[in-house]
Request: fold
Amino acid sequence: MTATEPGGHLGFGGQGVRPPTTTEQIKEYILRAHLRPGDLLPTEAELCSLLGVSRSNVREAIRTLAALDIVEVRHGYGTYVGQLSLKPLVEGLVFRGVLIPGDDFSALREVVEVRQALDLSMAEQIVTEMAGTSNPDLENLVAAMERKAQKGEDFFEEDREFHSHLLAHLDNFLVAQLGTAFWDVHQVVSPKLGLPAPEQIDLTAKAHGAMLRAAEAGDADAYRAAVVAHYAPLQDALRHVAATVEAERAAAATVTGRGERPVAAVEAGTA
Reply:
């Protein structure tokens, strides 16, 4: 029996319907049993009996689910429902962002656009929740970012914590997870482009302070303006990088069109 063969004990399958994989069956079991993150799953032998599949199928399915953070294998203790984080999404997006040398800026531009759209879409809710409040923890983070910006230092950790704190005011766990996930991708890909520049760091740090003040004042319009200002320096830099890359490609195409061999071809001796 292969990993895609159906099990017979949970009533899966049906005429004309693709048989569920063992992976799908285990996910369905978690849902039917109303298990939560951290709950213990049945043993390997028990899953084999419940699903009507072989040990090799269960092991293969568990490996797949563990990679997706749907289950967590604790050797010597058992298999538990995972934390269901977006870590696999982050890893996939990071890999996509660095897969094609010279095209990193496109991946980062897309991530920045999604981050900004997410922040703007949550503006009303964040402002509503934070209006009239005092947030010393966030104020301390802003102060730390501004100090580091003045020294030309990055403030990745403070930046991440600031946005996590803001999203924590929302009654929406998925939005908080998405915000953190896209921030993590941003953090990994951005330095590969030599971004941001010192002046951009300073503007970004100040924009965080403007976001906080607007949220505490209950001013949604000012908050949205601060969000746009937050991302503007990086977006300007990305447009500059894109224009530079495009100019270099155009120049290379012009040289090739004149009958001159590209440097790489000359070195390889193949053109």
